[in-house]
Write a structure and sequence with these properties.
The chain is mainly beta. It contains ten helices and 45 strands.
C-alpha cells in the first residue's frame, strides 16, 4: 500500500502553497474559434500565450480554450499553411480568428523536452520531437494508442501478440528499437505508472515491464508528443530511449461523438467502438473535459490445421509410438482416423491471432481558478478503465494423459485465459506564480491490476472426474504515487547571457508491487498418478499463483533536478540539465545532459545532445516468480521464473539487480525549405551497460541445473523442466537515424494537400555479456544465460527500418487520407544451435491504409476506409513439408508447432485487410 506519509507530505505542501499564493495575479479563460482564409473551420491551430509555454490547439471544429491567461496578454495563432497572427486580448474572453493563407509556418509548439517558460516549435528544439494531433489520431481506423503510434511514428513499434498469456492483453511498445521499459510515458507532463505485467514469453520486450497506453481513450487526447532522445536527466528513470507525453483535451465548448465499426475480410476481428468527449466552461474560471470509450473487439484466428498424425492413439504430442513398422503405423492411423470422424474432432484446435477484448474507459481533465483575486488555479485529471479479454492457450490432445482427464474432456480441450485489466489514475495539483517563478505542485497516483481467470480447463492431478473446469488464478497489481514540486523562471540579460531560463524541483515517489495467489485448485498438486507419474498440477493453460509466489513489496525514491536553458547568442541555444536520485532498494544515481542548437542560416540549423541516463530495475523484475508452460525449441516445457533474491537465482551466482546505465549521443539537422517544407534528420547512438534481461531457460537436462533444482525443491509442485531469472546480463549499442519531412500545399481556394515522409533506421548489437563466476566456471552452463534465440530477439526481433509515406488531401467537404508504411525485415533464431536450420528472416513488407471522408452537414461527418488495403501478410514460418497428418516420419523440426502457428511474432500482425466505417458528430 502507499505509505500514509505521502498523504501528509501532500497536505503540508498544499498549505505552504496557499500561504505563498498571495503574490499571484488574476487570470482568465479565453475561448474562441479559428477559421482559414476561406471561412472553413481550421483544426490543429497552435494557440500560445506569447512569451510563455501556456498553449493549446484547436479541435476538429476549430474551437479552442486557453486557461490561466492574463487579460493583458497577447495570443499567437499559428498553423501550417497559414500566416501567424498575434492578437492582444485587451480583456476579451471570446475570439474569432481568421488566418490568412500563402505563408507557411511549419511550426508546432511543443512542451516536452524542455522546461523553458517559452514554448518552441518542433524544429527549433534542441532534441527531435514528433507531434501527433487529435486530427491525425482520428484519420484512420486504428483505435488503440499503441497501434496509432505504430503507423504514424516510424521510431515507435508495437504489435499485438498471441498465445503469450498476459501479453495477449497488454501490447509491448518500444521506441528506437529499445525495450518497452526504456521509454517514459507522461500524461499532461506527469509520470504515468507502468503495467503490473512483466513479459516472460517469447515476444519483443521479453523480460520488460511497459506502460499500458491503451487504457487511455483516444477521444481524451489533444495531441501526443514523442521526444526521441535520452531524457533521464530531465524526467528520471526509464527515459533512455525517449519520452511520450500524452496531452489531454482541455476544450471548454462542444460535444463530439464518434462510432466505428468494421471487420477483416475473413469475417473475424469485428470491432464496434463508440467514444465521446464533452467540454464545458466553469464561468470563465476554468473548464471540465470528460471523455469516454466503449470498445468491443472479437478475436482473430489465423491458425493452421493440427498436423499431428494421431489424435487419440499417439504419444502426448500426437506422434507415433516408437518401434512401429510402416504397416503398423498405417493400421494405427486408420483406427485413429475412424475415431476422429466418429467424434467430429476439429484439427483447427487453437486460436492464433488477436484476443477477444471489451473495454470501458473514461478520463477527466479539469482546471479551476480557486481565488480569482490572487489567481490560484487547481487542476485535476484522472481516468478509470476496465478491459476484459479472452485468448486461447495450447490445445491438450486426449493423448496428453498427464494433462487431461478423459472423463471430463474425452476429445481433449483448449484452455482459455480470461483477463481483467483494471487501471485507475489521478493527477491533482496547484499552479501559478510564486515570487516571480512559475510553480507547479502536484500529486500523481496510478494503479494497474491484471487478474486471471482460466476456463475450459482442469487440474489433472485431482482425482478422476472431480476437477473444476474453471479457476481464479490470481492477480498482479502495481501502484505508484508521485509528488512533484517544480519552479521555472526566465531571466533577461543575466551577465553576458541574453536570456536564462532556470528550472528546478524535486520528486518523491513510492512504488508497490503485489502478487495475489489464486484458488487452491489453480496451483495444487494432487495425488493422481498416470502410469506411475504425477499428473500435471494446477489449471492447464495457466497455473495459478501459489501462496509462495504471493508478495507485497514497496520502495521509495527521492530526486532533485536543475535545468538551465539559454540563448547564448541569437544563433546558439544551449540546455544543461542534471538530476540526482536515491532509491531505497538499490542506491543512488546521478545523470546529466547537454544539448544545443545552432542556426547556420535562416531556416537551417544543427542540433545535438550528449547525456548519460539510467533505468532502475522494476519491482516486477526484482520480485516476480511463477511457473508457466512455454513452447521452446519444438517442445512444451514447464518453466520456473525465479525472483532475484530466490535461492535458485543465487545458486547460479546472480547478484542483486542494479540500474541500467546509458550514454546517449545525437546530432541532427533541421531545415525549412521554400516556406512550405520542413526537414529534420537526427542520428543517434545509445550505449547501455548492465542491461536487464530475462535469461534463457536453463534445462533440467543439464546435470548442474538438475542439481540446483533438486537442492531447492518446490514442495507441492511438479518438477519443472527449465528455470529462468532476471540479470544485468548484457551491454548493448543502438545506432540509428530518424528522418522526417513535411510539406503542405494550398492547391486552390478550396483545396489543400499535406505530404509527409518519415523514416527510422536502427541497429542494436550486443557488445558483451555480464555473467557470473558460477556460470563461467561450468562449461555446460556457458552460452545459456543469453542464448542465440534471446540475442536474435534483442538485435533483430523488431524492424531495423520503418518508412512512413502519407498524403492528406482535402477538397471542400471531402477528404482523402492515403498512407503506406514499410516495415523492415525481422529475424528469429532457435535457442538450440543444432536446430539452426529453422532460423528465419522475414522480409520487409509495405502496408497501405486508405480513408475517404465527407462532412455531410455541419455537425455530421462520415468516413469509410480499409486498413491493409492490399491484404498483405508477413512471411509464414518454415514448416517441414514432411510434417502433415498423413506422414509416417513426422518430426518437430519446424517452427509451426504441428502446423498450428503459420505466423510468429512479426512486424505488423497477420489479420489481413480490415474494412471500417465511422460516423462523427459534433455540437
Amino acid at each position: 500500500m502507499i505509505h500514509p506519509t505521502t498523504t501528509r507530505i501532500g497536505l503540508v505542501a498544499l498549505l505552504l502553497w496557499l500561504t505563498a499564493a498571495t503574490t499571484w495575479a488574476q487570470n482568465l479563460t479565453v475561448t474562441g474559434r479559428v477559421l482559414d482564409a476561406t471561412g472553413q473551420t481550421q483544426p490543429g491551430v497552435t494557440v500560445l500565450q506569447q512569451g510563455t509555454s501556456n498553449g493549446t490547439s484547436t479541435d476538429g471544429d476549430g474551437r479552442f480554450s486557453l486557461n490561466n491567461v492574463p487579460g493583458t496578454a497577447t495570443l499567437v495563432f499559428s498553423a501550417v499553411g497559414s500566416l501567424t497572427q498575434t492578437v492582444p486580448l485587451n480583456g476579451r474572453t471570446t475570439l474569432e480568428i481568421r488566418l490568412a493563407a500563402n505563408q507557411t509556418e511549419l511550426n508546432e509548439v511543443v512542451v516536452t523536452g524542455s522546461r523553458a517558460t517559452e514554448g518552441r516549435s518542433n524544429i527549433l528544439t534542441t532534441s527531435p520531437v514528433d507531434v501527433i494531433s487529435a486530427r491525425e489520431i482520428k484519420a484512420y481506423a486504428q483505435t488503440d494508442i499503441t497501434q496509432i503510434l505504430t503507423y504514424i511514428a516510424p521510431s515507435f513499434q508495437s504489435t499485438r501478440q498471441t498465445v503469450t498469456d498476459g501479453t495477449d492483453f497488454v501490447d509491448p511498445a518500444t521506441l528506437r528499437g529499445l525495450g518497452p521499459d526504456q521509454v517514459l510515458v507522461l500524461v499532461n507532463g506527469k509520470r504515468r505508472h507502468t503495467s503490473a505485467l512483466v513479459n516472460i514469453n517469447g515476444t519483443p520486450g521479453r523480460g520488460s515491464v511497459g506502460t499500458d497506453m491503451n487504457v487511455i481513450p483516444p477521444a481524451a487526447i489533444k495531441r501526443i508528443e514523442v521526444l526521441r532522445d535520452g531524457a533521464a536527466a530531465q524526467y528520471g528513470s526509464d527515459a533512455i530511449a525517449g519520452v511520450i507525453n500524452i496531452q489531454l483535451k482541455d476544450d471548454t465548448t462542444g460535444i463530439s461523438v464518434s462510432s466505428t465499426a468494421g471487420q477483416t475480410t475473413k469475417s473475424d476481428g469485428q470491432l464496434f467502438q463508440a467514444d465521446a468527449n464533452l467540454g464545458f466552461g466553469l464561468g470563465h474560471r476554468g473548464f471540465v473535459d470528460v471523455s469516454g470509450q466503449f470498445s468491443n473487439r472479437s478475436y482473430v484466428d489465423r491458425s493452421g490445421l493440427d498436423t499431428a498424425p494421431l489424435i487419440y492413439l499417439g504419444t502426448s504430442g500426437g506422434n507415433y509410438p516408437a518401434g512401429l513398422t510402416d504397416q503398423q503405423k498405417l493400421d494405427l492411423k486408420a483406427r485413429d482416423n475412424a475415431l476422429v470422424a466418429q467424434n467430429g474432432f476439429n484439427r483447427r484446435d487453437i486460436r492464433v491471432g488477436g484476443a477477444d477484448t471489451r473495454t470501458y474507459g473514461s478520463f477527466v481533465n479539469a482546471a479551476y481558478t480557486l481565488v480569482p483575486s490572487i489567481g490560484l488555479e487547481a487542476y485535476f485529471s484522472g481516468g478509470l478503465t476496465r478491459r476484459t479479454g479472452s485468448s486461447g492457450a495450447l490445445y491438450r490432445l486426449p493423448t496428453a494423459v498427464t494433462q487431461t482427464d478423459a472423463s471430463i474432456y474425452p476429445n481433449g480441450f483448449l484452455p482459455f485465459i480470461n483477463s481483467t485489466v483494471n487501471d485507475g489514475s489521478a493527477i491533482v495539483g496547484l499552479r501559478g506564480k510564486v515570487f516571480g517563478f512559475a510553480a507547479d505542485l502536484s500529486n500523481t497516483y496510478g494503479r494497474n491490476a491484471l487478474k486471471y481467470n482460466i476456463s475450459n480447463t482442469l487440474n489433472a492431478s485431482l482425482p478422476v472426474g472431480t476437477s473444476p473446469t474453471s479457476f481464479y488464478a490470481g492477480e498482479l497489481a502495481f501502484q505508484q504515487n508521485t509528488t512533484n514540486l517544480g519552479f521555472t523562471r526566465k531571466f533577461s540579460e543575466v551577465g553576458p547571457l541574453a536570456t536564462l531560463n532556470v528550472a528546478f524541483g524535486g520528486e518523491f515517489r513510492v512504488d508497490n508491487f503485489q502478487i495475489n495467489a489464486g484458488d487452491v485448485g489453480s496451483y495444487i498438486l494432487g495425488d493422481r498418478k498416470v502410469n506411475g507419474s504425477p499428473a500435471a498440477a494446477g489449471s492447464q493453460g495457466f497455473a495459478g499463483y501459489r501462496p509462495t509466489d504471493a508478495l507485497n513489496q514497496s520502495r521509495n525514491n527521492v530526486s532533485g533536478y536543475v535545468d538551465l536553458e539559454s540563448d547564448l547568442t541569437d544563433k546558439l541555444l544551449v540546455d544543461v540539465a542534471g538530476r540526482a536520485e536515491r532509491y531505497s532498494d538499490f542506491g543512488s544515481n546521478v545523470s546529466g545532459k547537454v544539448a544545443a542548437r545552432y542556426s547556420i542560416l535562416d531556416g537551417l540549423a544543427l542540433r545535438g545532445a550528449l547525456s548519460n541516463g539510467f533505468r532502475a530495475p522494476s519491482l516486477q523484475q526484482r520480485y516476480f516468480t511463477n511457473s508457466s508452460t512455454q513452447f521452446t525449441s519444438g517442445e512444451l516445457r514447464e518453466v520456473l521464473t525465479t525472483s532475484n533474491d530466490d535461492a535458485i537465482t543465487k545458486a547460479f551466482g546472480i547478484g542483486s539487480l542494479k540500474q541500467e546505465k546509458s550514454t546517449n549521443y545525437s546530432l541532427g539537422l533541421t531545415a525549412r525549405l521554400f516556406k512550405a517544407i520542413t526537414l529534420t534528420v537526427d542520428a543517434y547512438q545509445i550505449d547501455i551497460r548492465d542491461r536487464i534481461v530475462l535469461s534463457s531457460q536453463f534445462s533440467r537436462g543439464n546435470p548442474a541445473v538438475a542439481a540446483i533444482l533438486t537442492a531447492n525443491p518446490r514442495p507441492g509442485q511438479n518438477p519443472v523442466q527449465g528455470v529462468q531469472f532476471f540479470a544485468n546480463a548484457v551491454n548493448t549499442r543502438t545506432q540509428g537515424i530518424d528522418i522526417v519531412a513535411n510539406e503542405r500545399l494550398t492547391l486552390g481556394p478550396d483545396s489543400r494537400l499535406t505530404l509527409t515522409a518519415a523514416a527510422n533506421f536502427n541497429e542494436t548489437t550486443v557488445r558483451s555479456f555480464n555473467s557470473s563466476a558460477t556460470i563461467d566456471n561450468n562449461p555446460s552452463l556457458q552460452n545459456t544465460l543469453f542464448d542465440r534465440a534471446q540475442r536474435a530477439r534483442l538485435e533483430n526481433g523488431q524492424p531495423r527500418s520503418k518508412i512512413n509515406l502519407s498524403a492528406d488531401y482535402g477538397y471542400k467537404i471531402f477528404g482523402l487520407n492515403l498512407r503506406t508504411v514499410r516495415f523492415g525485415e525481422v529475424q528469429t533464431k532457435d535457442a538450440d544451435p543444432t536446430r539452426s536450420y529453422i532460423d528465419q528472416t522475414f522480409s520487409a513488407k509495405w502496408v497501405t491504409d486508405l480513408t475517404i471522408s465527407a462532412q455531410v452537414i455541419k455537425n455530421i461527418g462520415l468516413s469509410i476506409g480499409v486498413n491493409n488495403l492490399f491484404n498483405v501478410y508477413p512471411d509464414r514460418l518454415y514448416q517441414d513439408p514432411n510434417n502433415n497428418e498423413q506422414s509416417l516420419t513426422y518430426t518437430t523440426l519446424d517452427g509451426t508447432n504441428r502446423g498450428r502457428f503459420p505466423y510468429g511474432s512479426n512486424q505488423f500482425g497477420f489479420s489481413g485487410a480490415y474494412y471500417f466505417g465511422r460516423v462523427n458528430f459534433t455540437l
